[in-house]
Prior knowledge:
This protein is an all-alpha fold. About 30% of the residues lie in helices and about 0% in strands. The protein has helices at about 60, 65-75, 95-109. Helix 2 runs parallel beside helix 3. The relative contact order is 0.16.
Amino acid sequence: MGWLTSEELKWDAQGRLLTHSASTYQIPAISDAPEDFRVSLLARGPNAEVIYGSKAVGEPPLMLAISVREALRDAVAAFGPPGGEVRLASPATGEAISGAIRVRLAAGA
Length: 109
């Protein structure tokens, strides 16, 4: 989740990376999750085409982080007129989300 919402890369004037470790950028904490967070899993989702019915291992589950960003983009789309392009930077930081909402609202004015 943090990869696409808070792990923003920033460099100084000399081109040195300023956000190079967990101490230099905001890492999502449990307090960032909604208080009421309900998840349901598919009860019977067999996949007979793979070993032991596995769904994915390694990098594919990491790509699920994109669903977080796209959920945020859908939320931004609720502002302003229906339809149209919704531009949202990655990572979708609070500043990026706020800016995208301002653009949507301005389009509806």
